[in-house]
Amino acid sequence: MARKLKTFVTRLGFFDLAVAAPSMKAAMEAWGIKHNAFHRGDASESDDAAIVAATMAKPGTVLKRPVGTSEPFREDAALPAGFSLPVNAPKDRPPAKTKAKTKKAAARKKNPPAITNEDKSRQAAIISFESARAKRDRARAREDAAAKRDAEKRGQAVEKAHAALEDARKSHQDRRDKLTRELDRRLEEEEARWAKERRKLEAALDQARKS
Questions:
Q1: Would the CA dihedral through 27, 30, 36, 38 be positive or negative?
Q2: In whole angstroms, what is the distance from residue 17 CA to residue 9 CA?
Q3: Measured between alpha carbons, how far is 202 from 194 in angstroms, rounded to an integer?
Q4: Residue pLDDT, tens place only, 6-40
């Protein structure tokens, strides 16, 4: 029986991502995220009707929208306003420019499009998101460093305790061997003393019987 799909959302770079998947693990695989984003609080399940409808229409497909916006999720969402990816044209084959294009480019350069409040809000949201992510990364790095130091301390403590145990065990064995040797020596002396005394007493017994 097929597992019921759920809608999961996260943020990655300049985009909000959404996908319909049967589990959190499947969602992270679709996003290409290796760490547990749900455990870290970077991803969650969504019950937003519009988002659920969009993802359920294309289950398993990663949909996206510009971060900090309420635009519909789609496969080919554009970058947030004010952001673009650089495109380098081949240096040996510069694109031909017509006079009309040159005039339009000059006009755009002279009169650039005004930045709206919405654009500013989007940019501020992106900067805020990146700043928060950098802060989380620094916090995780500090936690990892602290955990490493604690592990090293525990390892040193275990090694020290193990060495102390081995020294005590060796000392005990040495004392035990010494006592064993001493006991063997005293037993031999006692046997020799008894043999001498027994011979003397047996001789006295024989003499008494003959008299």
A1: negative
A2: 6
A3: 12
A4: 999 999 888 999 999 999 999 999 999 988 889 98
